[in-house]
Amino acid sequence: MSSNRAVISTSRAPQAIGPYSQAIKVGNLVFLSGQIPLDPETMEMVSGDVAAQARQVFANLAAVAEAAGGSLNDAVKVNISLTDLGEFARVNEVMESFFREPYPARACVQVAALPRGAAIEVEVILAL
Predict the structure, then answer these.
(1) How far, in Å, CA of 81 to CA of 47, rounded?
(2) Which end of the chain, C or N, has fewer beta carbons within 10 A?
(3) Per-residue pLDDT tens over the stretch 51-93
């Protein structure tokens, strides 16, 4: 492992459900793994619609960002995967409550399926 690479981990976000870290910091960049709407305490999916799922996802990402010494306002790139692109506007509304302008660059794509039947998964890159 390179000496400038650090593993970021927090109990305030779901633990990894596969062979990956919650985040890796290299220099001033932090690469946050994709989060699905798991409750960090129970490791169960949150109930509710895509807005409820998105709120949990962004809360999980915020916890990882804080563990890295930053916040979601340090985000420079956000990648969103949705199982239904028809939910795009609802996810935007939730995202606006977690980020402030200037907003990060972003991509949003529709995918056939996500882990554990989630409707949304989001990954973030921070610049601290």
Answers:
(1) 18
(2) N
(3) 999 999 999 999 999 999 999 999 999 999 999 999 999 999 9
**For residue 88, is it left (φ>0), alpha (ψ between -120 and 50) or beta?**
alpha
Considering only CA atoms, which of 12, 10, 44 is closest in space to residue 30? 10
Q: Domains plus CATH for the chain?
A: 5-127 (3.30.1330.40)
The closest alpha carbon to 68, from 123, 8, 6, 3, belongs to 8
Retrieve residue 4's tokens: 């400038």
| Strands (DSSP E) found in the chain | 5-8, 23-26, 29-35, 75-82, 105-110, 120-127
Separation of alpha carbons 122 and 47, rounded Å? 17
Active site positions, annotated: 108
Model-level pTM greater than 0.85? yes
